[in-house]
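Appendix B, example 12.
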Amino acid sequence: MDANRHAPQHREHDIDGTCEVAIGELGSPMFFGPSTITIKVSWDTDSNIIGAENVTEIKTDLHNDGKSLDSDNFTVTWHGNISTVATHGEEQSDQSYTFNWK
């Protein structure tokens, strides 16, 4: 797979559907190396206006013994429309990222 192409993404929404977290992998890990993942958070800031979104995206490495990203590698928690994504890998401490558009 091309290193700039996203693998299928995992998506989660907040309870009212105004915020989405999408987690994907760029390419695939090299021989027991880390993989690069993206965490993209989109907030619908005005449901009356198409395209009224605030988007934040980060890239980070996941050290998971050369394995591809799956749902065991992250946890998404919600506090209203504030999301926290924790990444879990076999060869790293958990990393936590909190997203709040306000």
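The two ends are 36 Å apart (CA to CA). The chain has a mean pLDDT of 85.
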